[in-house]
C-alpha cells in the first residue's frame, strides 16, 4: 500500500477547512481505486504527525468519512475503507440505448402563442449607466439585517418547524405583523386571516386574474398603464377596456361610460402613483370610483406597491380604507422596500375571494419561503423596516430633488415634467415631438440605458414623446453623468 | 426644557444596541411632543457623560436620528429637533367616511368552487408523534450552510446585482451547476438553457398543466397516485384516465388500451418510487412507455422528486435519459434534499415547451428568489449538497432498516409490507381488512398522527387497508414509541 500521508497535500491558506481537504483527498483516492475497499487507514495520531496538523483535525476528517459511509470503524482494530462503497451507480434502462441527448423540440404539440409575452426580462448592457423605470437602489438594501435574522433562526431549535411544509396563506407571524403595519401606516383594520402572503405584487395580480376572469370578461385598465398587469389579465381571457389618465388620475367619466354600456368584471388601478405617469388619483375621483364599483358590482384591484415612499405631503389613504361593500382587493409589496429580488408581496381581500386565491396559490407553488417570511416578520416587529423606510425616504427625497434641479438647469428647453410627490420616478415629456424610442437608441450608443417608451401604451406601435425616469437608484455623480449623456442623445434625436 | 438625560434610560444588558436605545428614546419623546420641533439636543460629550456611555455611542445615535430626518444639524451651532418631522401622516380620502372595516364578503360575484381543493394544509396536533407520509428530517437540514452562503454574499459588492430583477428562467449559475449535477447523478447531458428553476415540483406541474392542457384533454394518471398532481391537472380542465399500479409500477397494458381508444394529451408518472406505493417502474415497462408516447404523441411528465435517495441498489436512470424524440418533461426538486420549506425545484424540457413555461412563470411571480438560487448554486458547486446527500442517505438507510425490523418483530401478524429500495416511506397493508381511516382515528386518540389513507385513491370514499409510513423523519426512540402506539391503535380498530 502506498503511504497515504505522501498522497495528501494540505493547503493551510485555502478557504476549504483542512479536515475537509483530508476528507476529499481520501475520497478521491478511494474513487480512483488507489485505496481499495477493506484496506486500513493510518491511525489518526500518526497521520496527524506526518501531515503536521492537530490530531483533532484528522479525527474530524475520519468522522466525516464515516458519516458519508466511505469507511468502516472496527472497534479496537481501526478504520478501514468500506467494503460497500456509497457511490451507488445508476443503472441504464436498457444497455442498447444511445447516449442521451435532449431533443430540441417536443414530439407532442405545443402552441407557440399559448402564453403572451410582450414584456420579457432584458439584461442591461454591461458598463452602461442606467435610468431605470423606477427601482430602489439595491446598494442600500438591508441585506445585512436579513442575514442577521437568518443567522438567529439557524441557531434556534424551533427553526426546523419553519423548514417543513406550512400554511399556503403564509407565515402567521408575518401576517400578524403586517396587519399591525397596515394599521399604523394605512389606517386599515384587518386581521392576519384577511391577508395572503404572495411572491410580490405579480403573484397577487395573477391570482386575481385567474380566480375572477372568464373568457371575454371586461377589465378596465388605464392607458398608458402597467403592461405587466395587462398581460396577466389578457392571459386569463379578459378583454381590456382602456381609459385615459390626466393629472388627477384615471378618467372616471370614461369608466362610467363603459359601465353603462357593458358588464364590467374588474378595474385595475394604481391610485397612489399611477404607473407610468406618477399622478395621484384625487379624493373626489376615489369616492366616485368606489360608488361606481358598488353600483355596477365590479372588483377594484388596487395596486399600492409604493405607498411607503412619499416625500412632500402625506399620501391619500388607499381606496380600501373607504370600502365598506367589499369591492376592493388591495395588493402591495416589500419588493421595493427591501429589494426587487426579495419576493414578498401581499393581498388583503374579503374572505370568500381570499379562500379561492389561497387554494389556487397551493396549486401553483404550495407555499412561500417560510424562513424568508419569518425573517420579514421579525424585521417588521423590531422596527427595522420602519427605520429602513425612513432612511430610504430621506435619501430618495434628496435624489428626487437633485435630479429635478439638474433637469431644470440643464434640460429645461428640451423636456417638461412635474415633480412627483413620492415614488421612484419622474414622468418626462420630450418637447418638439421628439420620439422616445429614438432617444433611447441614441442614448444607448453613448453609454446610457434609458426607456424606449414602448411599454407604456397598449398600442406598442404608437409613437410618443414620454419616458419614465427613475431617480432612486443613482447617486449624484451618476445622475450628473447620466443627464449629460441623455442631453446629447436628445439633441441627436431632434 | 426637561433634561433629556433624565428621560432616557439605558439597559446595557438588552439585545438592542445602546445607540438604538438612545435613538428610539429620543424619537419617542419627539413623537409625544415632549421634545418640540426646533429645540436643541445636548452636545454629545455632555449627554455621554450623564448617561455613562462612550461619546461615540451618542454620536452614532445622533447620526441615526439625522439619517431618519428627526433632527437637523446646524454647522457650528448644534443639533436641533427637525422642524419638518418625517412622520408624514396619511390623509383620509374623505373626512366623512366611517372607520374602516374590511367587508366579510365581496359585492362582486366569486364562484366558491372556482378552484378545487381536495387537499389542504393541516396543522399537526401539538404534542403528537407523527408518521409523516414521507418527509425528510428537517432537524438535519443544512441550514447552517445556507446561512453561511447568505453571509458570504451579504459581504460581496456584486450581491446588489442579485437583488435586482433577474431572469425568469432562474439564476444562470444555478442552472449551470444543476446541469453538471444532473449529468453526474443521472447521466443527462443538458445545458443551462434546457432548465427552468421552479418553486418545487409543484410549480413545475402547474406550468405543465397550464401550458399543455385544454378543456377535456385526457391525462393518464396512476390510481392510487399523487393527489397534488391530479388536482393541478383537473384545475386546468383535464379529464383524468386512471390506470392501476402493481409491483412493477403503472400498468402499461392499461395505458395502451386508453391510447388506442382516445387521444391522450399527457401521462404523469413517478417512475423512481411511485407515490404512494414506492414501487419502481421496471426497465421493460419504461421502454414500452416511451414507445407508446412516441407512437401516440403524448407528453410524459416524469416526476423524479426523490431520485437522490436510494439505499439498496442503484436506481434505474430516469425515462428522459432514454428519450430521443422529445416526449419527456423531467421535473425534480431540492425540497427533499434541503427541506420542504426551501422551495427549489426544476424542469428539463425541449426548447419549444420550455419557452412557453418560462413565459407563464413570468406572469405568475416574475422570478424566483435570486439570493436563494445563488446560495444553492454555491452549495452544489463546492460539493456541500453531495456531502449532505451522502450523510442523509446513510442516516435514512439506517432508519429504514430500524423501522422495518421493528415492524417485523412487533407487528408481523397485523401488517404486510415490502422493504423499499430508497425514498422516505414504506407502503403498508393492514391485514384482516382493517380500515386505514379507522386506525388513523384510533391512533390520533392515543397521541400518534398517521395517514388516514383518504388521499391515495381517486375515489375518496373507497375504503381500503393501505397506509404510507415515513421513516426518515423519526429517530429510533421516536419510532419505537410510534410503533407501540400504532400497534395499540390497530388492535382497537380490529
UniProtKB/TrEMBL annotation, chains A, B:
MF-aspect GO terms: DNA binding; DNA-binding transcription factor activity; pyridoxal phosphate binding; transaminase activity
Residues annotated as signal peptide: none
Keyword Coiled coil part of the UniProt annotation: no
Residue ranges annotated for the HTH gntR-type domain, each copy included: 16-84
The entry's keywords: Aminotransferase, DNA-binding, Pyridoxal phosphate, Transcription, Transcription regulation, Transferase
The organism's place on the tree of life at top rank: Bacteria
Claim: Transferase is one of the keywords in the record: yes
A Pfam family annotated for this UniProt entry: Aminotran_1_2
Family that this chain belongs to: In the C-terminal section; belongs to the class-I pyridoxal-phosphate-dependent aminotransferase family.
Protein name, per record: Aminotransferase class I/II-fold pyridoxal phosphate-dependent enzyme
